[in-house]
Design brief:
152 residues; alpha+beta; 5-stranded mixed sheet
Length: 152
């Protein structure tokens, strides 16, 4: 136990596998990985060694702040640009695949569409910049696949 403590203090990143190999190779002591793990656990509980900084960390669940609220069913827009809806779909023709983006404003019946080779964020950004440039009104709110983004 003292040998495991000494090795771990000299090399805080060593785990059960490395320590058991060093014990067998350099000190002629045969401890299994399970035994070394139990010894390390005991030493950690006593506070003699810290958990290795290279050990896998427990993953925390991401919590998203919902800044965007979906439009209420039956909600009516009063002016153009207040409720703009964007959809995209895949189009295949002659073994070629394209992504079709379309923005629609129900008040002014304004439609802007674009065809891109992929549906990555770069294509979406390019489509949005074209939309903002060609729209005849200020865009206040956009709904995309049941998510709403309000421009403040």
């Amino acid at each position: 136990m003292q040998l495991v403590l000494k090795l771990r203090r000299e090399n805080p990143t060593y785990g059960k596998t490395k320590i058991s190999v060093i014990l067998k190779r350099d000190h002629a002591v045969q401890f299994s990985e399970s035994t070394v793990r139990r010894i390390l656990k005991h030493l950690m509980n006593k506070g003699l060694v810290q958990k290795s900084i290279s050990a896998p960390q427990k993953k925390r669940k991401r919590h998203f702040k919902r800044h965007a609220q979906p439009w209420a069913y039956g909600m009516k827009n009063l002016k153009p640009g207040q409720m703009l809806q964007i959809d995209h779909m895949s189009v295949s023709k002659n073994s070629f695949s394209f992504k079709h983006f379309q923005a629609w404003d129900p008040t002014s019946k304004f439609i802007h569409a674009g065809l891109y080779s992929n549906a990555k964020s770069r294509s979406a950004k390019k489509f949005l910049l074209e939309l903002i440039q060609k729209a005849l009104f200020k865009i206040n709110s956009i709904q995309v696949e049941s998510e709403v983004f309000t421009i403040r």
